[in-house]
Specification:
Shape: globular
Strand content: 35-45%
Number of helices: 5
Number of strands: 12
Mean pLDDT: 93
Order of helices and strands: EHEEHEEEEHHHEEEEE
Number of domains: 2
Helix content: 25-40%
Length: about 240
């Protein structure tokens, strides 16, 4: 799976995921195509959250991949590959980050990147996917958000498009390794970098606040949390981190 052979660079768009989805609906997008925007004024995250960034200062892009062919009960593998590729990119910049389930990357206690994946299903298979990524690069102030950027962390300004090209290399390599059978290593590496794994934390679910520990993430994407004397399984949007 190679991404980035074709890059569509936009000055401004509501959402690169929306742009890719419209191209897909019209049958006008090839697998591996990347859509990058200098400004994304209605970028979306999980729980329908809107994530705003300063124009031209950060990296916001989406890419479309076809023939994913993951079973629905293993669809979170794609999220793991995307997240681990982001970790690889940040490591090349000298940064250590963790993955906050389900789709954010943190440096310490501040968000530096987010991921939104929208899968297209065919029966019990994920046929294709649109992967949206936002990485804070040169922005130095985030009003109302607990966030950071590569500039804040390193003191160096960078060209977002150069980081995009580096990411396409990282993801393409990660996908090849996975297809070559590196299943166990992917899961092990993901858990190794999971935010607050096996640490006492506070959460909120449908029954209210509670204390627990994250013990695992299933291939389906469900978060496994030790709650009292039992393990409880949470899908996305069924649980929130409090602290």
């Amino acid at each position: 799976m190679e991404i980035g052979r074709k890059i569509i660079h936009l000055d401004s768009v509501d959402s690169t995921n929306n742009y890719a989805a419209n191209l897909l609906k019209a049958g006008q997008i090839e697998s591996g195509t990347v859509i990058m925007a200098d400004e994304q004024f209605a970028g979306r995250g999980q729980r329908a959250a809107v994530w705003s960034v300063n124009s031209g200062e950060n990296l916001t892009f989406s890419f479309f991949i076809d023939n994913v062919n993951l079973s629905v009960d293993r669809q979170f593998v794609l999220t793991q590959l995307v997240s681990m590729s982001l970790l690889d990119l940040l490591a090349k910049l000298g940064l250590t980050a963790t993955i906050k389930w389900p789709n954010d990357l943190y440096c310490g206690e501040r968000k530096i990147a987010g991921v939104l994946i929208e899968n297209q299903l065919h029966g019990a298979l994920v046929k294709s996917a649109i992967v949206g990524i936002g990485l804070n690069v040169n922005q130095d102030e985030f009003k109302g958000f607990k966030a950071t950027s590569t500039f804040i962390e390193t003191g160096l300004q960078r060209f977002p498009k150069e980081l995009l090209l580096s990411y396409t290399v990282s993801f393409s390599a990660a996908w090849r390794k996975y297809m070559d059978g590196h299943f166990v290593r992917l899961k092990t590496d993901y858990l190794k970098h999971l935010y607050r794994l096996n640490m006492a934390s506070r959460f909120l679910d449908a029954e209210g606040p509670f204390s627990g520990r994250i013990t695992d993430v299933l291939d389906s994407g469900k978060l496994v949390v030790q709650k009292g004397n039992e393990n409880v399984y949470f899908a996305i949007k069924e649980i929130q981190f409090l602290h």
